[in-house]
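Run log // design_07
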């Protein structure tokens, strides 16, 4: 038995995009673990916890930007609303940003992971490692499915074209560049930026 077909032409060797597959598995495992172990905490419970244990954070947030923060906190307490950026509103000062105890006591697992491992421009100087870790975090099922689908197709093609080591380096590099681009225009933001979209966009644009 040889590698030749009946007409004498060699069959091309099947390429298995190992790095792409491993990246997809890692992303899915991380998302699944966070989702499985996460116990959602409503914005109302977060604010109540802060009022009881860390009132200085709410005061700082209110003083910093009354319209963005004080009004949001009021709505959380009176209307049980949950604005998308209430975490950033509350964590509006470095004194509260630095307190990991606050995160672990008042916030859900998902919030904690996003804030500690997601890319937060405001604390970039103390957590540069998040330039890489943020590419492995996803908000919801739609976010990770769409990213992994694009990664499967774009990653397989790029890995085959430039090789595994160069592909992994390029993937991480484009993810880092995407976070730095976000940082350039949102230096004071306390909102975590998460997802592999930046790295995958780099693959698609290459």
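design_07 sequence
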């Amino acid at each position: 038995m040889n590698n030749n077909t009946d007409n004498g032409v060699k069959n091309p060797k099947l390429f298995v995009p190992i790095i792409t597959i491993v990246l997809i598995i890692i992303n899915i495992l991380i998302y699944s673990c966070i989702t499985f172990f996460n116990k959602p905490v409503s914005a109302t419970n977060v604010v109540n916890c802060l009022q009881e244990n860390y009132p200085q954070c709410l005061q700082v947030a209110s003083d910093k930007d009354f319209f963005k923060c004080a009004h949001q906190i009021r709505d959380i307490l009176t209307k049980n609303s949950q604005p998308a950026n209430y975490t950033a509103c509350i964590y509006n000062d470095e004194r509260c940003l630095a307190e990991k105890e606050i995160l672990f006591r008042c916030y859900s697992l998902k919030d904690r992971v996003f804030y500690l491992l997601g890319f937060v421009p405001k604390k970039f100087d103390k957590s540069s490692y998040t330039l890489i870790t943020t590419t492995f975090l996803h908000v919801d099922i739609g976010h990770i499915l769409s990213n992994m689908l694009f990664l499967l197709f774009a990653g397989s093609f790029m890995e085959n074209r430039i090789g595994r080591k160069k592909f992994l380096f390029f993937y991480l590099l484009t993810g880092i560049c995407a976070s730095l681009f976000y940082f350039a225009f949102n230096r004071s933001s306390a909102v975590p930026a998460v997802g592999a979209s930046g790295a995958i966009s780099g693959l698609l644009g290459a």
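DSSP finds twelve helices and no strands in the chain.
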